[in-house]
């Protein structure tokens, strides 16, 4: 079993408007891929479609995980296979205590686990993202700062322990210290059985995560792929040189 | 197909846990229907003093003469002639768990009552049909003068207190169903907390309707003397039956100067029960009355816990939830009368409707002229789980004092798709995701409950939500 995520010539539209126009990308466990690109190029759409958001229509192409199409699977079935999405804008759930939610998440992704294992994993996750344990009593994402919400996403990533994780602009809204913590937390997951797609606008987080591959998404397609040196070039020159017709 | 199987097994376990009923072993029951003779028979069976018989007979006349309310829910389908007004399951009230008959014990075992008592309860009174069969009070509390009896026993052992306070807060003529209760009442709890006594553990009673077509008209009277405090908890689950059942309780609470009373109820009636309840408290100077009221199940619930803020500085806090499923109407709300200066009230009402269920909030806030320094806040939040369901708010305000600070806020929301997607992306199925959102919505209520009740309520809601997906 290699548990590779293969996105093949994916075309996606929402409300009748085409957003992804033939995107192809393969992420193997053990690899970190970075995805960059201008606003509106379809980065968040890609993350939602991988997670199974019902608001997007796949008009052609396919997404395979471990060799099988996941397009017909519900979001929870995909999560149970080992896919995870850290949201760019985490959703607030009033009244839902974070600790009990995280326990439910842990049970869903670790069906045969014991309560004590959850307690250990939770304590570890709090420590890694630098949040106090008392946060567990607060309602999920309610009243948290942007940076705190991102750390809570990373806690969920740590507790889910997925095979392939998509991090959608997890670094935006984080100060330098928080960014280091979050990057360190993600790095603790790095192993031959963990792969990730890191969507970002900035090179900063990539300096910590050291991606194996970097891709640039423009107008719904991968316009350029390269190694870890590509972001430096993008920071200097912007995206304009990648357009077929310069803007 | 697996979805169907799952649904059936959920329904089966629901039936198993809450819908069971034991063979009826009543030693005495009145014939169906109401009459003066039935009232006299009940009073005779109970060996009551003449004043109580007269009170019952007077109330029967009031009931017969009062028209059926045309507001609230549909009450026209109740067939009063098909109801048995009194049924006595065994000869005497038991005081030890070992003495309770096996089939009745079996019922309570399945509801987990003895465990609950072992853990933290100060006293347990459980009503089975019309008589309380099991009653016990923590010895320490008894030494402090705390009285916790079923109402029938209280009438014999505490005649002066009962005569002084019975129907003093809810008179027979208050409404048609208060009159019905006064005419046919049986069982219920009587609590007296002496001056200055603080009862730290909650007192509890558990009510069930077990026999087909038995009206259950329990009568509860709680008197908390000056500076005393108590929390009383009443929980209900009822078996499922195909014919209509009527539950018409009256609860009267008297909170004397500086007293504190918290009355916690969770009711989960089977979906054929008419639950028509009058609950009212009288709060004297600087007393605090709290109604924590959870309503699940029943065909129609009409219940408006009220507080009369009679003494200066008295406070009322009312926190309620209503959950209406298919064919159910929860018409709930509150009445608060500010009749003295510097009185305060706070109301938080949460309702959830699904599968065409209907919830209504019906509230009255009155501030009498000259009552300065009054403040009142009312917050009603309704959550609709589908397009078929319905929620209405009917607030009435009679503010006769210009200085009163009054706030009323009402919201109606639907299940948020982004929240559902977010939770599902974490491996929760649709039913689990929706249940967590609903549990979060009512959390302000649940967090006020003792742990065991909170767990039971959450389980009930999860069961309800599992049934709604597919």
Characterization of this structure:
- The complex is a heterodimer of chains A (247) and B (470).
- In chain A, 35% of the residues lie in helices and 26% in strands.
- By secondary structure, chain A is an alpha/beta fold.
- Chain A has one domain (5-244): Rossmann fold.
- In chain A, the strands form two sheets. In chain A, strands 6-7-8-3-9-10 form a six-stranded mixed beta sheet, sandwiched between helices. In chain A, strands 2-1-4-5 form a four-stranded antiparallel beta sheet, covered by helices on one side.
- In chain A, β4 and β5 form a beta hairpin.
- In chain A, α4 (115-129) packs antiparallel against α5.
- The longest helix of chain A has 15 residues, at 115-129.
- Chain A is globular, with a radius of gyration of 18 Å.
- Chain B contains 13 helices and 23 strands.
- In chain B, the strands form three sheets. In chain B, strands 5, 6, 8, 10, 11, 13, 15, 16, 18, 20 and 22 form an eleven-stranded mixed beta sheet that branches. A ten-stranded mixed beta sheet of chain B has the order 4-3-7-9-12-14-17-19-21-23.
- The longest helix of chain B has 17 residues, at 2-18.
- Classes of the chains: A alpha/beta (247), B alpha/beta (470).
- The A-B interface holds A 51-55, 74-76, 78-80, 84-85, 87, 90-91, 93-97, 101, 104-105, 108-109, 139-140, 156, 160 and B 416-419, 421-430, 432-433, 436-437, 439-444.
In terms of topology, how is this protein built?
The complex is a heterodimer of chains A (247) and B (470).
Chain A: E1 5-14, E2 17-27, E3 32-36, H1 43-51, E4 57-65, E5 68-69, H2 75-81, E6 83-86, H3 98-109, H4 115-129, H5 146-160, E7 164-168, H6 176-189, E8 195-199, H7 203-209, E9 213-218, E10 221-226, H8 230-237
Parallel strand pairs in A: 3-8, 3-9, 6-7, 7-8
Antiparallel strand pairs in A: 1-2, 1-4, 4-5, 9-10
Helix pairs in contact in A: 4-5, 5-6, 6-7
Chain B: H1 2-18, E1 28-29, H2 36-45, H3 50-65, E2 87-88, H4 102-111, H5 113-120, E3 123-128, E4 131-137, H6 139-143, E5 147-150, H7 151-157, H8 159-165, H9 176-184, E6 189-193, E7 203-208, E8 219-224, E9 229-237, E10 245-247, E11 250-255, E12 260-269, E13 273-283, E14 288-297, E15 300-303, E16 306-309, E17 315-324, E18 329-338, E19 344-353, E20 358-367, E21 375-384, E22 390-399, E23 405-414, H10 417-424, H11 430-441, H12 443-446, H13 451-466
Parallel strand pairs in B: 3-7, 6-8, 7-9, 8-11, 9-12, 10-13, 11-13, 12-14, 13-15, 13-16, 14-17, 15-18, 16-18, 17-19, 18-20, 19-21, 20-22, 21-23
Antiparallel strand pairs in B: 1-2, 3-4, 5-6
Helix pairs in contact in B: 2-3, 3-9, 7-8, 10-11, 11-13
């Amino acid at each position: 079993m290699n548990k590779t995520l293969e996105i093949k010539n994916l075309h996606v539209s929402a409300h009748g408007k085409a957003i992804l126009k033939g995107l192809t990308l393969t992420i193997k466990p053990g690899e970190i891929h970075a995805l960059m690109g201008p606003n509106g190029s379809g980065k968040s759409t890609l993350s939602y479609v991988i997670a199974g958001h019902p608001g997007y229509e796949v008009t052609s192409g396919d997404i395979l995980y471990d060799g099988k199409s996941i397009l017909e699977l519900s979001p929870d079935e995909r999560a149970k296979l080992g896919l995870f999405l850290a949201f760019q804008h985490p959703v607030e759930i009033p009244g839902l205590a974070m600790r009990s939610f995280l326990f439910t998440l842990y049970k869903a992704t670790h069906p045969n686990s014991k309560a004590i294992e959850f307690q250990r994993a939770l304590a570890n996750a709090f420590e890694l993202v630098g949040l106090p344990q008392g946060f567990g009593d607060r309602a999920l994402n309610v009243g948290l700062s942007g940076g705190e919400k991102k750390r809570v996403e990373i806690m969920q990533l740590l507790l889910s322990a997925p095979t392939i994780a998509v991090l959608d602009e997890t670094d935006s809204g984080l100060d330098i210290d928080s960014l280091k913590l979050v990057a360190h937390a993600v790095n603790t997951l790095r192993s031959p059985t963990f792969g990730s797609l890191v969507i970002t606008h900035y090179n900063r987080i990539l300096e910590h995560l050291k991606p194996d591959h970097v891709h640039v998404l423009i107008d719904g397609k991968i316009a350029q792929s390269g190694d870890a040196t590509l972001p430096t070039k993008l920071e200097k020159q912007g995206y304009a040189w990648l357009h077929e017709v310069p803007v | 197909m697996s979805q169907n199987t799952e649904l059936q097994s959920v329904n089966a376990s629901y039936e198993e846990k809450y819908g069971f009923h034991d063979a009826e072993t009543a030693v005495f029951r009145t014939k169906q229907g109401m009459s003066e003779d039935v009232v006299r028979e009940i009073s005779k069976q109970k060996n009551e003093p003449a004043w109580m018989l007269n009170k019952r007979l007077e109330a029967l006349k009031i009931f017969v003469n009062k028209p059926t309310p045309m507001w609230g829910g549909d009450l026209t389908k109740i067939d009063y002639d098909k109801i048995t007004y009194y049924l006595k399951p065994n000869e005497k009230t038991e005081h030890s768990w070992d003495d309770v008959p096996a089939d009745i014990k079996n019922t309570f075992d399945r509801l987990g009552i003895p465990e609950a008592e072992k853990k933290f309860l100060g006293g347990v009174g459980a009503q089975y049909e019309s008589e309380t069969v099991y009653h016990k009070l923590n010895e320490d509390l008894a030494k402090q003068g705390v009285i916790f009896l079923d109402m029938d026993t209280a009438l014999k052992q505490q005649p002066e207190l009962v005569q002084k306070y019975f129907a003093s807060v809810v008179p027979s003529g208050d409404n048609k169903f208060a009159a019905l209760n006064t005419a046919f009442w049986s069982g219920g709890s009587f609590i007296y907390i002496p001056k200055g006594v603080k009862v730290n553990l909650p007192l509890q009673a558990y009510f069930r309707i077990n026999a087909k077509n038995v009206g259950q008209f329990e009568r509860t009277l709680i008197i908390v003397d000056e500076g005393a405090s108590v929390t009383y908890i009443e929980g209900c689950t009822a078996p499922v039956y195909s014919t209509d059942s009527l539950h018409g309780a009256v609860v009267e609470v008297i909170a004397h100067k500086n007293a504190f009373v918290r009355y916690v109820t969770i009711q989960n009636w089977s979906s054929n029960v008419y639950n028509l309840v009058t609950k009212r408290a009288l709060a004297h100077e600087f007393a605090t009355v709290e109604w924590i009221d959870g309503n699940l199940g029943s065909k129609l619930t009409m219940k408006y816990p009220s507080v009369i803020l009679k003494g200066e500085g008295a406070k009322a806090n009312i926190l309620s939830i209503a959950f209406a499923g298919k064919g159910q109407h929860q018409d709930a709300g509150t009445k608060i009368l500010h009749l003295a200066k510097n009185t305060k009230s706070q109301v938080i009402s949460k309702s959830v409707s699904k599968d065409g269920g209907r919830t209504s909030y019906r509230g009255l806030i009155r501030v009498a002229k000259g009552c300065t320094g009054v403040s009142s806040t009312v917050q009603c939040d309704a959550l609709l789980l589908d397009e078929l369901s319905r929620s209405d708010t009917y607030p009435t305000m009679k503010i006769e004092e210009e200085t009163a600070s009054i706030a009323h806020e009402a919201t109606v929301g639907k299940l948020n798709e982004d929240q559902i997607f977010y939770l599902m992306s974490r491996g929760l199925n649709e039913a689990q995701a929706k249940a967590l959102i609903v549990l979060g919505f009512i959390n302000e209520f649940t967090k006020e409950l003792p742990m065991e009740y909170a767990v039971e309520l959450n389980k009930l809601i999860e069961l309800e939500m599992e049934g709604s997906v597919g």
